[in-house]
């Protein structure tokens, strides 16, 4: 979705008052690293209470606003296959294990998998829609 974009394009918000393309890419890494940790906690602990993070605040940190997207793409290119390998090793019972989220309550690993399976394509669509609108 970001191949061939210039620095100026990467620093363009995908919508009014929205994150820039760069921030969206870095957000994916932030959220997926946190989620990978949550999945491991759910499988190895009994109903762990997870600590959340503040995506909007993290997006405003200097790395989220200015680091090269290649850094985050490299992390995603390593993390996603590792996450898939981990998920493929789980038993049906392990997919039913639960996490306690402070706002959403008890959710299973399977439900979190649905959420994060949606997450990347959702944000990729933000970027591709911007590219279409701008003719990039």
UniProtKB/TrEMBL annotation:
InterPro entries named among the record's database cross-references: DinB-like, DinB/YfiT-like
The record ties this protein, via Pfam families, to: DinB_2
> What are the DinB-like domain coordinates in residue numbering?
2-126
NCBIfam families on file: PRK13291.1
- Spell out the protein name for this chain: DinB-like domain-containing protein
User: Which organism encodes this protein?
Assistant: marine metagenome
